[in-house]
Amino acid sequence: MKLSFQEEINRRRTFGIVSHPDAGKTTLTEKLLLFGGAIQEAGAVKSNKIKKGATSDFMEIERQRGISVATSVLAFEYQNNKINILDTPGHKDFAEDTFRTLTAVDSVIVVIDVAKGVEEQTEKLVSVCRMRKIPMIVFINKMDREGKDAFDLLDEVEQKLGLKVCPLSFPIGMGYDFKGIYNIWEKNVNLFTGETTKDIFETEQIDDLSSQKLDDLIGQDSADTLREEVELVQGIYPEFDIDAYKSGDLQPVFFGSALNNFGVRELLDCFVKIAPTPRTKESDIRIVDPLEKKFTGFVFKIHANMDPKHRDRLAFIKIVSGTFERNTPYLHTRLGKKLKFSSPNAFFADKKEIVDISYPGDIVGLHDTGNFKIGDTLTEGEQLNYKGIPSFSPEHFRYINNADPLKTKQLHKGIDQLMDEGVAQLFTLDLNGRKVIGTVGALQYEVIQYRLEHEYGAKCSYENINIHKACWIEAEDEKSDEFKEFSRVKSKFLAKDKRGQLVFLADSPFSLQMTQDKFSSIKFHFTSEF
Ligand code: G4P
Fold it and tell me: Where would you tag: which of 31, 204, 218, 484 has the fewest CB atoms within 10 A of its CB?
C-alpha cells in the first residue's frame, strides 16, 4: 500500500546516540538493529571508536574513516517506523563532527554507564542538545554490573547535565543482585535471567505493584524494596508529559544492559511512540515545515572517499521538507547554481542503495566533486539558507607550512577541501597572511598531513604557535575609536576564518580576560554563530 507524503513523514524517527566512549553506544546501536531485523547477529556493527592506546596510529585513523562512512547513518524499519540512527563519534578529537551531526537529528538517546555516571563527553554533548532543545531520552547502561545507586545517579544526571528526569523504568537490584526491571511506562516486570539474549521478549504484566505475583516473581524482600522505590520515584519525579519531553524540558530515563539486550526493547518501544517526527527548521528567512511540498535540505557532513584514486566525496544531506528525487535539478543556494544527482545513496544497516525518492528526516549521500561545504543548503529554487552549524574554538593551533614548493597549488586545494569537510579550521593572520590550523584534538594534524600527501600529493610541516583560544569578534561599530584601537593594539592576534569572519587569537586566558575588560564594547564569542 502506498503511503501518503504525510504518513511517510509521520513514520520517520531520526536520532543520534550520544555518550562518553565506552558507555555502550555501539552495543546499544547493535541491539536496536537486531530488533529491527536489520542485522542478524551481534558483532555485525563495528565499533567506530579509536581503541585506547592507538591514538597516533595512521592505520587506525584510516580504519576509523572507513568504518565511520559505513556507520554514518544506519536505517532500519521497526513496527512500520523508518528509523534513522546518525552516528556521533564519542572520541573527543572528533567532537566537532558530533556537534554538526546533532544539527541533523530530531532527538537523542544519551547512554550513561551505571558505574561511571556522568562523564566529560556526555556533559559537553548534552549541553549542546540542551541549548538546542533537542528531546532526549536517557538510557542507564550496564545494570548487570555493580554501579551507583539509582537515585544517586538520577541526582547526578539532573545536576551535572542540567536535565529534569522522569524515570520510565526502574531497576530491581544491580550487579550480582540484578533481578530485572520494572517498566513504569508499560507497567510490567522484565526479569533478568542471564539468558535474556535469547528470550528478549519475556515480560510479566504487573498492573498492581501490591499484587502477590510480584513477590512470587522476585521474592518478598526485593518486591517490598521495589514497591518503596517506585513510590519514591512517583513522589519525587514529575509524571511523564510528552509535550515537555518534546520541547526539551523533561527527559525520560530507562535502565538496562545493552550487552545482554536487556531493557532495550522497552526503550525502543517507548522511543517509537514518543520520539518526535521530523521537526521544523529555522532558516535565515523563515521557519521551514517538513510538510511543505517543496524540497529543502542541508549538508551536515562531508566524507572523503576512501579510495585515493577518486577524489570524490560523499556529502550527507538531511532532508528538511518535501521530497528529494533522483535526477532532479536542485538549487545550491550558496553557489547559485542548479545541480542534479544521478545516484543519491540511502543508507541501511547492512547496505547502501541508490534511491529514487527520500522524505523529510531521511539522510541521503550525494557524490560530490567539490561543490559542497558543511552547512550548504539545497532547495527547489527558494533562496534560503539553514542556520545552526557553528564552529567552536579549537583546542590546538599550529602554523601550517608548505614543505614542497613545487606543489603549492595542490597544498592550497587540499587544505581548502579538508576544511570544507570540517576536518579542522583554518585561520589566516591579518598581519602576514600566514595560515594557522586549529583542531579539537592533536590527532587531526596527522590526519591532515597524511591526507594532503596521499590524496593531493602535497607536503606540509607544522610549527608551534602559542594560542589559547579563538574568539569570533562582534563589534557594535567598526568605525568606533575603541574598535580602531583594538585592531591596532591586537593586530598581531587578528585573523580571518574561512568565511572571512574576524577572529581574535588569544595567547592566554589572562590576555583574553584583559582584552575583554579593556575593550568592553566588543563581544568575544566562542562559537562562530552568534
Ligand atoms: P561505545 O560505543 O560507547 O564506546 O561502547 P561499546 O558499545 O563499544 O561498549 C564498551 C564496552 O562496554 C564493551 O566492552 C562492551 O562489551 C561493554 N558493554 C556494553 N554494554 C554493556 C552492558 O550492558 N554490560 C556490560 N557488562 N558491559 C557492557 P569491551 O570489553 O571494551 O569491548 P568488546 O571487546 O566487548 O567489544
Answer: 484
